[in-house]
Design goal:
218 residues; alpha+beta; Aminopeptidase; 7 helices
Length: 218
């Protein structure tokens, strides 16, 4: 049913990168899930141990292989690398053509290593997928140190591109707790429409919450 769809493992807009989750991301997820600012309105809960985070990643990768969920790490260019690269450009500005040629060669090598010069800042996924009805749901979180920089909006726009253009979904949903104002604004700014409020829809750590159902249609 879905085998003709283009499965995207990495996509970027020049400022932000989404790449397929790997087993090497377990520590990052383990640390993120411990932050209550991230998990306050999410089903995601702290992992008892790093080993549990590794098991979680393994299950998520199995879901990817079965085309049931596509999870991506959100990355930006590492500011330290970006600054050093900028200094390098200024330093080499007045060098002769031979050195410029050498610089060009190094640039190609650096391009191949670009993934190593990125900084992980969050996770975004398409899950709860129905291939029959051509729809999926978005989940996203970003580490608090990178809130309010517009990265969430860029990540959602990229995942919409994956869902609509590559996977050919007709509908992408997001469920947001009514108290989660930043996420509500995020999806509104990304062109999602509020369809309804689902009362007592989520139980998070013993408390029930109403959620807003947002949707974007291709």
């Amino acid at each position: 049913m879905y085998y003709n769809q283009e499965i995207v493992e990495e996509i970027d807009d020049g400022d932000i990168y989404l790449r397929k989750l790997t087993k090497n991301d377990a520590q990052f997820l383990y640390n993120g899930a411990k932050d209550k600012r991230i998990t306050k309105y999410m089903v995601l809960a702290p992992f008892p141990s790093l080993g549990d985070a590794k098991k979680f990643v393994k299950r998520v990768l199995e879901l990817w292989e079965n085309r049931q969920q596509f999870s991506y790490i959100i990355e930006i260019e590492n500011p330290e690398y970006k600054n050093s690269k900028s200094k390098g450009k200024n330093k080499n500005k007045n060098k002769n053509s031979k050195k410029n040629k050498d610089k060009s060669t190094r640039s190609k090598k650096n391009k191949r290593k670009s993934a190593k010069n990125r900084l992980r800042i969050g996770l975004i996924n398409l899950w709860n997928i129905s291939w029959t009805h051509r729809r999926a749901e978005i989940g996203i979180w970003i580490v608090p140190s990178h809130w309010r920089y517009g990265y969430g909006k860029k990540a959602v726009e990229l995942i919409k591109m994956v869902g609509f253009q590559h996977l050919e979904f007709k509908r992408i949903e997001a469920h947001v707790v009514t108290q989660n104002t930043p996420s509500i604004n995020l999806f509104l700014n990304c062109g999602f429409l509020k369809e309804c409020v689902l009362r007592k829809y989520l139980q998070l750590r013993g408390k029930f919450y109403d959620t807003i159902l947002f949707a974007s249609i291709s």
